[in-house]
Structures are given as C-alpha cells and as structure tokens.
C-alpha cells in the first residue's frame, strides 16, 4: 500500500509538502508469521517526525504502537545498523534516513516483555472483562469457539492469547522467529539447543573479547541466543544478531543457505574457541560417527572399501520420483544404507577383472556418535 494522502502526517511549519522530498518506507512485519514474507510501503514526507512515522507504521501493520518495537535498518558502507525508532522519537525522518536512497527498510518486531497487540477490525469496545470472563474466552478459543470483539485484541494466529500464555508456561519452550527464509537455521539451532551436553558446554565457555569482537563472534551470539531460549518470557526470540555474526547482510536472510555447510561453519568457530580446553573434542564426541563405504564387483566379488568419519548424514525425506515420504527417521536411514547397483553412468573399474563393471555399493554405519 502506497499512501499518497498528505493529511496523514502533519508537515513541519513553512514547508510545502508538495515540493519537499518524500521517503519510501518498506515495512516488514516480523511478528505475524503469515506476514513475515510480505512487505508494505508507505511514502512519507522527509520532514515527518519519528513519532508520526511510528504512528503510520503501526496503523499500516495494525498494531498498537506501544506494544511493539519498530527498527530502521540503516546501511552504512558494508555494515547494517539497526535503529529503534523509539530511541529517536523527537527527531525527523530525514535525520536518520539519507535522502537520495531509493527505499528504506523498517521491521516491526516484538518489544521486550510485552505482548504485541493488534487493532481490532471492529471499533466498539465492551467493558474490561473480569478474570472469569477472560478464562471463559480462553476456553472458548481452545475449543474453537468465536472470541468476542474488543477494540484491542491480541493476534490469534501468532498464539498471543491468554490461553497460549498458560500453555507456554507448561511447556517451557521458546520459539525462534523466521527472519525471512531462515527456517533451516532455526531447525539447526533447536537441534543443538536440545542436546544438553552441547548446551551446557556452550554455557561454560566464557567470552573474553571486546564489544566489537562480540558483535562478530559466532560462539558468543549462539550462547546469548541459547540463554534467551531458556529464560525469555516471549513466545519466540530473534536470530538477527547470530546471522550478523555470520557476516550476512539483510538480503542474505532471504537466500536459502546449505544447512550442512552452515553447521560446519558454526562447529569450526566453536572448535577454534574450545581448543586447549577440556571441551576441545566435545563436538566429535557428540556428533561424529564412522561409516564404511564399499563397492563390490558382482563378477569376481572383489571388494574395495574405506572408512570415513561423519558429523551429519544427508537423509532423503521423499525419494526422487516418489509420491510418498518416509514415515520416520529410521526408515530414511534404512534407505540411506540400502545397497544399490551402480548403473552404466556410474561404472566402476575393477582391477581384478581389468574392466569397467556395474558393482554393488553399500554403506555401513560402523560407529554412531557418543557410542
């Protein structure tokens, strides 16, 4: 939505709004999971106060301004700096946005220890509910009944209801916000976090660098994120600071990265920090296994083999050309190690037969991690 109505923002005195420069604001809602991949735009006069910008962005995304945080992603050379608009509410938009830049990115994120509140589609507001009525509303939400309409309502699709808060306290788990296309990263982080030995080892490590070094330290940012996952009162926390420590800019979170390579980068960073400590071999102890890879000639039965170490196994969820997926990890592992006959394009030269043959290839998991 591009707003062209100048009456929405009060211009500075003695400024002709028709002639003054305008700033194109691109807004991404990082709270609503259904809107995380979409963008809205509003075109505001450069003389607009940041307070007015906060109001406009809040209206555009239909949140109550005091229940959210809005950040401006300011690009300085090759770096990106996040500026919370609430820290500069008395400034003008032109004070933080460089004129001449075609578009400026703003993100709507959660405010610390505050549930984001949506503006209702229906304006009338009933009297404040009692505890009993809130409990009743929560019960009806769980059972699928329609909730009552308030002027201010928590956003149901994100789980921000009284009932969901109660459920969260029972499970004790905190989620991860999908920045753009970082669901693969979130899966990796949750897997590592749910390994108690890995998590505790990361907690025992002490960062001894400067503030600038902390900004670029993968182990420090991962440790910080783990602590948030364990102690935060939010429904979900962000991974922005961790991805920045990878050296990514704002555009790279929209690219699908290889999760195996990303895991290797994180492990390498941790191993370099844990060198010469009692945790030096922890990653290999927790995740490394041994696998025998061999090929066997079907004519002379000659076999050649090698044993390799692995930290991960690339399992197929749905075989190529199949309409059905494997129902369990065990089934996918069975398929991974199932012997296969190599076809014409993958022929193997048998030294005993002195010719190319179609051998059988087999994988055998010789040792699993921590065993």
UniProtKB/TrEMBL annotation:
One GO process term, biological-process aspect: protein deubiquitination
EC class name: hydrolase
Ranges for region Disordered: 118-145
Pfam family, one: Ubiquitin_USP47_N
Xref: Gene3D superfamilies: Cysteine proteinases
Keywords carried by this UniProt record: Hydrolase
Compositionally biased region (Low complexity): 130-145
Molecular-function annotations in GO: cysteine-type deubiquitinase activity
A single cellular component GO annotation: cytosol
Residues annotated as domain USP: 174-371
InterPro entries reported in the protein's UniProt record: Papain-like_cys_pep_sf, Peptidase_C19, Peptidase_C19_UCH, USP, USP_CS
EC number: 3.4.19.12
PANTHER family documented for this protein: UBIQUITIN CARBOXYL-TERMINAL HYDROLASE, UBIQUITIN CARBOXYL-TERMINAL HYDROLASE 47
The protein's name in its UniProt record: USP47
